[in-house]
Design goal:
The protein is an alpha/beta fold and 238 residues long. It has helices at 113-123, 147-150, 157-166, 187-193; strands spanning 4-5, 20-21, 23-26, 45-50, 59-63, 71-73, 94-101, 110-111, 132-136, 154-155, 170-173, 199-201, 214-217, 228-230, 234-237.
């Protein structure tokens, strides 16, 4: 089996410096005019801007909200004093990672500390300080239906606080919202973002990882002053 060694970089988290992997798994949704968006957001638009016939090359103008498709929320998304996406350390977006399997959670189900601990115990390995956690609810099966945006399960505020207490560097979920659908106080968002923990939403394909060990890459665009960014979420699997 062929492996690639990630070069040792002193600013990387220690456990990610020499992670060896054999394949990449794409955990991202694609983005297009039919991407599901919350009612507050417009649909993405790609407009031809130059042509090969006139300019000799092709380019598109992109119109999309910073929280489109698989994306990361920076603390500034909810916290007025929080960091914007361009001010977050790259260390936050590359780390050893784990999928916590909660795919049987019901619509609008709240995931609290007890559910997170039970999923962690099923992993058979530790979740260490600085690791990233992806919560698999199985809700991506509803993508393309109204229920995807209106009935999704999510973290309870106490669940968000529990993950902060674990010392995780980043939290993701395979639904459009880390909070439960209809939650107006955004307790999970505030618990995580107030602690400086970025949140990835609209993750995809988490079932492909099972309980494997992997490193997660979730690098955002360096958008100055922005509250979030689309990401190409990728697992580097041993």
């Amino acid at each position: 089996m062929r492996y690639t060694r990630i070069p040792c970089v002193e600013t990387m988290p220690r456990s990610a410096r020499e992670f060896r992997f054999s394949r990449l798994v794409d955990l991202s949704q694609d983005i297009g005019p039919d991407t599901q968006m919350f009612p507050a957001y417009p649909q993405p638009t790609f407009t031809p801007w130059t042509t090969r016939e006139v300019h000799g090359f092709l380019a598109e103008s992109l119109f999309l909200v910073s929280h489109t498709g698989t994306h990361v929320d920076a603390p500034f998304h909810m916290e007025p004093g929080g960091k914007t996406i361009d001010r977050l350390s790259l260390d936050r977006f590359f780390a050893p990672a784990h999928v916590l399997d909660l795919h049987d959670v019901p619509p609008r189900g709240r995931i609290g500390p007890a559910e997170l601990r039970a999923a962690r115990s099923r992993l058979g390995r530790r979740v260490s300080k600085g690791d990233a956690v992806l919560v698999r609810t199985g809700w991506e099966r509803k993508r393309g239906t109204p229920a995807y945006l209106t009935e999704n399960p999510g973290l309870a505020a106490a669940g968000g606080r529990a993950l902060v207490a674990w010392g995780v560097s980043l939290v993701g979920i395979d639904s459009p919202n880390i909070d439960v659908a209809g939650e107006t106080r955004y307790g999970a968002h505030h618990a995580l973002l107030a602690a400086g923990v970025p949140v990835v939403e609209n993750a995809a394909n988490l079932a492909a990882l099972g309980s494997r060990a992997f490193a997660l890459a979730a690098f955002p665009l360096r958008l100055r002053g922005a509250s979030g960014s689309p990401v190409r979420l990728v697992a580097l699997v041993e």
